[in-house]
Amino acid sequence: MNDKLTAEQDLKTRLGAIRALGGNDPAEINATIARNILHEDLGRFEGDQTIYGLDQVKRDRLLAHARQDAALAVLGISTITNEVRGLNRKVSFLIALVVAVLALELLRFF
Q1: Where in the chain are the domains?
Q2: What is the largest CA-CA distance in the chain?
């Protein structure tokens, strides 16, 4: 009997452990899912593994493009994170401004 888990079983177990320990960080969950996909591609789980039959040149090209895509994704996330931080600051400022205007309007009536 083979004691290897399927990719789905492994992922369910790992995510369950993260949640059981109080983990709720989306970055940690995303990293766990990404590792699961990598390990599935490397054949570490029970089940059929896709065989692509690529020659070395195609494999090298795909690897280079995958690295480029990963780098672009990291840069894109960094840009989006900075934009969200800036928007959060602006929203906080606007909320404070609205509260101040409301307070001034209420003071006019008393």
Answers
A1: 1-51, 54-110
A2: 81
pLDDT grade for 4, boundaries at 50, 70 and 90: confident
Global pTM reads 0.61
Q: Using an 8 Å Cβ cutoff, are 44 and 83 in contact? A: no
3-state secondary structure of 6: coil
**Phi, psi at 3, each rounded to 5°:** -100, 15
**Collapsing DSSP states into helix, strand and coil, what is residue 34?**
helix
**Token pair in block for residue 74:** 């990291």
What does DSSP assign to residue 45? S
Cα-Cα-Cα-Cα dihedral sign, residues 32, 37, 39, 45:
positive
